[in-house]
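DNA-binding protein, pasting as requested.
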Amino acid sequence: MNKVPITEQDKLNFNSVIENTLQKPEQAEAMAKILYNLALRLNAVPQNFMSEFTRLIEGGLVEESKTILPKALNEISTTVLSLAEEDLSRSYTTGQLSKIFGVSISTINNWIDANRFVGFSRAAKNKQARISESTIWVSPTGEKIPVSEVAKLYQTNQQKMQLQQEPTKYERVRYLVEMIKFYEERYKGTFEEVIKEKGDPSMTEDFQWSREGKEWRAFLQEIESD
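Structure tokens follow.
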């Protein structure tokens, strides 16, 4: 059976139902359990979310679990909605994903095994994995990012590299100044200020800051050496 297209209005209506349900704790608990069991059957529950949901289910609707319930229902409803959406997007192999994320193929496979690509599971043990760009990737910090956004960032960086293959010295300096200014506006501060807040990009688990922070630092070092 083919999937039924889900419109933006459908998603708004679904989210509205979740918001209304949250006003009634007993109904919210039941809804959360049903959606959780559905996501669990589809191998789509993020690992960083399992412990909180276990506390909710085992503890019942006691005072402590009432603080967990809104987050639990919102998290699991977002996951189920992403699984329900029609998927007409392109997909990537583990080799392609390793280039996009800037990690090894074995790391991508480890992420698959840890359910870090929400809702994805291998069709067969030895079959080549292909992951849709609409799939949600869960970062080490718990942030949920569509694979398409990571791919877009990778493509943007590749295009910037191609444009700067053989520039003149003046063109290169102008490019460095523009990129440093771009990152200062993007992160709302100088590199020194941002690194105090976000940490060393070589040590972080934030893939975007790791990639962009290292690039920003390299630009600064290059322009200082000229």
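Note for the archive: The first helix runs from residue 8 to 21.
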